[in-house]
Specification:
Oligomer: single chain
Strand content: 5-15%
Shape: rod-shaped
Distance between the termini: 16 Å
Largest sheet: 5 strands, mixed
Radius of gyration: 57 Å
Strand order of the largest sheet: 2-4-5-7-6
Helix content: over 70%
């Protein structure tokens, strides 16, 4: 009785602890990534907020003040030629050019340094150069403004209006440049604000996705843990079944962990217990049958010996009689009785063989030669019964350790069964070939075949498909083959008949005595 368990998985073992630990590490790593990403985004948002508060807001205010100052400057220029006291206007313009404009551009440059030192320095250099160009452009108003006030002082209104128009044009150009600079800064501020909003939205989506992912990972880890522990539950159920007496081996699902190893070990233990229980029952049953067979044989052999002796004496008396009908009839009766005595003697020998169960004497033999010698002995009897023998024996087979007498007995039993399965004659094929780790003997007949319902019990004692016979031949044959460490099986032979296959291990394979 063999277990149906698979061999334990090969390769490095993955423990349950390591799998759970790796699951935890993966979750922790994923959480660390999300948390790290959120922290980085938060720090970037803080930096952007600080940049807006300490840089962009002062810069936009400084640009707005510069634009407002230039508007006031342009407004004062429009009415400078109509002023009743041009001297007062001159003081305002000189103060604006000496203090107002420098201070406004100084604040612009200071704010630009705070903004663009670490954030887009190339743009900061370009905007700084633009502000300096505007400042230098406005420095040119100083000479024109001096000429304007000189013309007013000299009473040259036409000249003064021309110079005023020139300053108004320059002022409008400067105002356009300042507004362009202000727009560029506002675009950067809007971009920074949009980036911050986009990061915030992305962070929220990422956190939401992480929440969903965490739920899915939690469910997945739960299912994974359940799948990891499911073999343990099956082992528990199997233990309960075994405790209830179920020793049928079950197939073990391969698993590279302690639970899989436990399940495989447990099933191996169950299989070993089942084999031991089966062998114990078989041994007890065979021992009982053997004792009964030995007793019956002992009681029968003495009368048989006496009958055989009397038959010899009767044969001598018949030989003294003259020829006649009475003698012929007596000789026929004598032969019939002698045939039955021989059959009973053969039966007693089978019973004795069952009772003795002799262990084989294993020696290295040429298996093909043993089979050929056995065939030479049995073939005349097969031919007499109309059975044709077909040989297919391979050469150069590996030597096999066997008991020649017991292997001959097995082959005789198989050939006799083949002959009895073909009462009207037929063909029996004997094949010998190398197979895997040993040699294989095949005896196939072209008889009626065996009912599949009965074939599974053919090797049990006293099981036979014939109307006469003890049903011990195949049982004894199986015992002999198994004590040689081999196996024997019965299967259907296509297109008809039965095939018995015997496998014996080669010297490299362990021999189970």
């Amino acid at each position: 009785m063999r277990a149906a368990t698979r061999p334990p998985p090969t390769g490095p073992k993955k423990t349950v602890l390591s799998r759970v630990l790796w699951s935890y590490v993966i979750i922790t790593f994923a959480f660390a990534l999300v948390a790290g990403y959120a922290v980085l985004q938060q720090r970037q948002s803080v930096r952007d907020t600080a940049l807006i508060r300490t840089g962009y807001v002062p810069l936009t205010l400084a640009l707005r003040d510069a634009v407002a100052l230039q508007n006031s400057y342009n407004s004062q220029l429009n009415h400078i030629t109509e002023a009743r006291n041009p001297g007062d206007k001159r003081v305002w313009f000189e103060t604006s050019m000496r203090l107002g404009r420098p201070r406004a551009f100084m604040e612009i440059r200071s704010a630009m340094r705070r903004v663009f030192t670490s954030h887009n320095p190339l743009l900061g250099e370009a905007l700084g150069a633009e502000s300096q160009r505007i400042e230098r452009f406005l420095e040119g108003d100083r000479d024109v403004l001096a000429q304007l006030f000189s013309a007013l002082d000299r009473g040259e209104p036409l000249k003064a209006e021309q110079l005023r128009d020139q300053l108004v044009t320059r002022g409008n150009d400067a105002l356009t440049l300042l507004r362009t600079l202000e727009d560029r800064v506002n675009v950067q501020l809007d971009t920074l604000t949009e980036d911050a909003s986009r990061r915030e939205l992305l962070t929220l989506r990422f956190l939401l996705g992480w929440a969903v992912f965490s739920i899915l990972v939690g469910i997945g880890v739960g299912l994974y843990a359940r799948r990891l522990l499911q073999p343990l539950e099956r082992v528990t159920q199997r233990a309960k079944a075994v405790a209830s007496g179920d020793l049928t081996p079950h197939e073990v699902v391969a698993s590279h962990d302690e639970i899989g190893e436990l399940a495989h070990t447990f099933e191996s233990m169950v299989a070993a217990i089942a084999r031991a229980s089966h062998e114990l029952r078989e041994s007890e049953r065979l021992a009982t049958i053997g004792k009964m067979a030995a007793h019956v044989t002992h009681e029968v052999r003495n009368p048989l010996s006496s009958i055989a002796l009397n038959l010899e004496l009767l044969d001598e008396e018949l030989s003294k009689l003259g020829a006649g009908a009475n003698r012929s009839e007596a000789q026929l009766l004598h032969q019939a009785i002698k045939h039955e005595v021989e059959r009973l003697t053969e039966l007693t020998e089978q019973y004795l063989s069952l009772a003795r169960r002799n262990e084989p004497t294993l020696e290295f033999e040429d298996f093909a030669e043993v089979v050929l010698e056995a065939l030479m002995f049995v073939e005349p009897d097969l031919t007499r019964h109309g059975v044709e023998v077909e040989r297919d024996i391979a050469e150069a087979l590996p030597p096999v350790r066997l008991d020649e007498a017991q292997i001959r007995q097995v082959l005789h039993n198989l050939l006799r069964n083949a002959r009895q399965a073909m009462p009207k004659g037929g063909r029996v094929t004997v094949r010998v070939r190398e197979s895997g780790d040993g040699v294989e003997l095949e005896v196939a007949d072209t008889g009626e075949g065996i009912d599949p319902l009965v074939s599974g019990q053919l090797f049990e004692p006293f099981v036979t498909t014939k109307s006469h016979g003890t049903g011990l031949g195949l049982s004894i044959s199986r015992h002999i083959i198994e004590t040689h460490g081999g196996s024997i099986r019965c299967e259907a032979n296509a297109p008809r008949g039965t095939r018995f296959v015997v496998h014996l291990p080669a010297p490299s394979a362990p021999v189970q005595a």
